[in-house]
């Protein structure tokens, strides 16, 4: 069955490392509207695989906040922490099929290559086998000198030459935790996700994820990367910024502000509607073509923010 013939399935996949903030709400709302606006389903996944970073109580707080803002997911919640067996099987499959290899390099040694898009490119030390006296630490995926491109819903055409820009990349870390790039692909495939809507800070990860799909013989979903909220200097605003705090007492106003930031031109009449009413308007009138490539915090008028 082709992707065009499948029902649309979107997802939101927060990490339980702290409370949701305004930027989180923008991403959740965009993914919700993209899926529901096409008559599709919207799923929730908790990316709790990196257990050293998980904050106690954060997962419950995230689910409560989404519910407070009317963003109710379809079906059961998927937890990455419950999928370790599936991740391990995928790593072994990629090794057995020649796409992945054991790497014995320390983090410092892995950074001895030329400068790439996100830092030094892996120099390929273990690509053809572990050097004598070395033991496997991590597992890496081989890349090819080939440009991988996508047509992003919001950012337009984007591509990378993975060999030159990134290099062979880690899919299982030295601490045994499956790397984000692989876990995300496996989870999206398991949930049948067709539309991935997330922040633009993850755009550079997408060619790697498309490559993983190819290695596993899967068709990738479509992608849309909404711009992150930046300050006057172009820096991403963090969770600690007071202007990004969410206020359940001002839910309608903050949803309307999110829609405005997403270029959806919400009418003034929405101010008198309930949370479900605002969301109905948002879904019925969602236009992906209106989403800007950049969001400037100077446009923010955050009702209820401290």
How would you describe this structure in keywords?
single chain; Rossmann-like_a/b/a_fold; GluQ/Sye; Rossmann fold; glutamate-tRNA ligase activity; metal-binding; 306 residues; alpha/beta; 3-stranded parallel beta sheet; Glutamyl-Q tRNA(Asp) synthetase
Summarize, please.
By secondary structure, the chain is an alpha/beta fold.
Summarize the structure in words.
The protein has a three-stranded parallel sheet, sandwiched between helices. A three-stranded antiparallel sheet has the order 4-7-10. The chain has a two-stranded antiparallel sheet with strand order 5-6. The N and C termini lie far apart (49 Å). 29% of the residues lie in helices and 18% in strands. The chain has two domains: 3-82 and 227-299, 3-Layer(aba) Sandwich (Rossmann fold), CATH 3.40.50.620; 97-183, 3-Layer(aba) Sandwich (Rossmann fold), CATH 3.40.50. The chain has helices at residues 22-36, 58-68, 84-96, 107-110, 162-165, 180-191, 206-215, 251-261, 275-284, and strands at 9-12, 41-46, 78-79, 100-103, 115-116, 119-120, 138-141, 147-152, 156-161, 169-172, 195-199, 222-226, 229-230, 295-296. Mean pLDDT is 90; it is low at 1-5 and 300-306. By secondary structure, the chain is an alpha/beta fold. Helix 6 crosses helix 7 (206-215).
Which percent range fits the helix content? Answer: 25-40%
Number of domains: 2
Mean pLDDT score: 90
Strand content: 15-25%
Outline, from the CA principal axes?
elongated
Number of continuous helical runs:
9
Number of strands: 14
């Amino acid at each position: 069955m082709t992707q065009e013939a499948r029902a649309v399935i979107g997802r939101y996949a927060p990490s339980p490392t702290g409370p949701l903030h305004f930027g989180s709400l923008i991403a959740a709302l965009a993914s919700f509207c993209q899926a529901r606006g096409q008559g599709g389903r919207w799923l929730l996944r908790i990316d709790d695989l990196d257990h050293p970073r998980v904050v106690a109580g954060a997962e419950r707080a995230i689910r409560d906040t989404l519910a407070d803002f009317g963003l109710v997911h379809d079906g059961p919640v998927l937890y990455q922490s419950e999928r370790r067996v599936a991740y391990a099987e995928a790593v072994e499959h990629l090794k057995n099929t020649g796409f992945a290899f054991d790497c014995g390099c320390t983090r410092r040694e892995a950074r001895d290559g030329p400068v790439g898009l996100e830092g030094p490119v892996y120099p390929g030390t273990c690509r053809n086998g572990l050097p004598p006296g070395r033991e496997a630490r991590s597992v890496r995926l081989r890349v090819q000198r080939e440009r991988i491109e996508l047509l992003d819903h919001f950012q337009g055409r984007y591509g990378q030459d993975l060999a030159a820009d990134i290099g062979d990349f880690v899919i299982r870390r030295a601490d045994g935790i499956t790397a984000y790039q692989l876990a995300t692909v496996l989870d999206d495939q398991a949930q049948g996700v067709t539309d991935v809507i997330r922040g633009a800070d993850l755009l550079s990860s997408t060619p790697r994820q498309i490559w993983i799909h190819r290695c596993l013989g899967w068709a990738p979903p479509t992608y849309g990367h909404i711009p992150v909220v930046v300050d006057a200097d172009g820096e991403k605003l963090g969770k600690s910024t007071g202007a990004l705090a969410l206020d359940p007492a001002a839910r309608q106003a903050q949803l309307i502000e999110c829609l405005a930031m997403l270029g959806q031109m919400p009418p003034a009449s929405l101010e008198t509607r309930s949370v479900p009413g605002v969301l109905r308007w948002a879904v019925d009138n969602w236009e992906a073509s209106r989403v800007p490539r950049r969001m400037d915090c100077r446009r923010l008028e955050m009702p209820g923010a401290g």
